[in-house]
Automatic annotation (TrEMBL):
Start and end residues of each Plastid lipid-associated protein/fibrillin conserved domain: 99-279
Species for this entry: Linum trigynum
One GO CC term, this protein: plastid
Keywords tagged on the record: Plastid, Transit peptide
Full protein name: Plastid lipid-associated protein/fibrillin conserved domain-containing protein
């Protein structure tokens, strides 16, 4: 009996009761399990906690798939512009109904995947943008159609239009070429006002018709004499008048034209706007702002 007592006293003490599930876990794993179980109880879930982990793991592939869908929609829209004939076909009215509906369908598909929830105050909005598409209600298309009504398409060409957006102001520039040898630029300046997370108001301030520039190498022989007389006449004008002509023709536009539009899509490469009639304008980025601009949420005007 004494020997048995000696053996028993040499053995390590063992607790009388031990949890069936925690008997072989370290204190760290016990704490982790307890914390996870507590989290599950807080949200009222009866399913095992590993289901929550599985849902989180499934979220990453879903986000990746959505991003791939958005990039594919962007590429599809740009290809539709090219297939429709690009900017020239748009301003000359040479688009077919099938091409128009195809482009509009792809615009709608991309708008559905807009990644920017508050585009009017996003830093992505600022920069230099190129017009790829605009509808019948757009001031740009109105100016283009007016040009081609006055001049035959083989004598006048609107080569491109772009807009610079910075610090609440916009400057639209249209570059034209007449008679293959005279380049002219029309600039429209406007003030932008944020009226909501998607809505903005544009008020035109001034229009400038810059002095045409002549490309002498491309002037037809039958026009060189007339062109020389015109240049000689301008040079004989008084200096103040010559300075005015050199500075271009300025037309005040304050209070004459304004419009409301929504930004339905915005990322680092594409901007889509719709006017009050729902007509879309699609622009692609040419230049980003010189400095990164922090996103600031400003108060909206009602």
């Amino acid at each position: 009996m004494a020997a048995a007592a000696t053996v028993a006293s040499s053995l390590p003490s063992i607790p009388a009761t031990r949890s069936r599930n925690s008997s072989f876990f370290s204190p760290t794993s016990v704490a982790t399990t307890s914390s996870s179980s507590s989290a599950c109880r807080k949200v009222g879930l009866r399913m095992p906690c590993r289901a929550m982990v599985q849902q989180a793991a499934q979220g990453a592939p879903a986000a990746y798939a959505k991003e791939m869908e958005r990039l594919s929609a962007k590429e599809s829209l740009l290809l539709a512009f090219k297939d429709a004939g690009g900017f020239e076909a748009l301003v000359t009215g040479k688009l077919t109904e099938v091409q128009q509906i195809d482009v509009n369908e792809r615009i709608t598909g991309l708008e559905r995947l807009n990644p920017t929830t508050r585009p009017t105050t996003s830093p992505y909005l600022e920069g230099r943008w190129n017009f790829e598409w605009f509808g019948a209600g757009s001031p740009g298309l109105f100016a283009a159609r007016l040009l081609f009504q006055r001049f035959p398409s083989n004598l006048a060409n609107l080569s491109n239009m772009d807009v610079v957006i910075k610090e609440g102001k916009a400057r639209v520039t249209a570059n034209m070429k007449l008679l293959y040898s005279i380049e002219s630029t029309v600039t429209l300046s406007s003030q932008l006002t944020v009226e909501g997370p998607l809505r903005m108001k544009e008020e035109y301030v001034e229009g400038i018709l810059e002095t045409p520039k002549v490309i002498e190498e491309t002037v037809p022989e039958q026009l060189k004499g007339v062109l020389g007389q015109a240049i000689s006449t301008v040079q004989q004008l008084p200096v103040p008048i010559r300075d005015v002509i050199a500075g271009g023709l300025r037309v005040p536009l304050s209070g004459t034209f304004q419009r409301l539009f929504l930004i339905s899509y915005l990322d680092e490469e594409i901007l889509i706007m719709r006017d009050a009639a729902g007509v879309p304008e699609v622009l692609t980025r040419l230049e980003a702002p010189a400095l990164a601009i922090p996103e600031v949420v400003s108060e909206y005007e009602s």
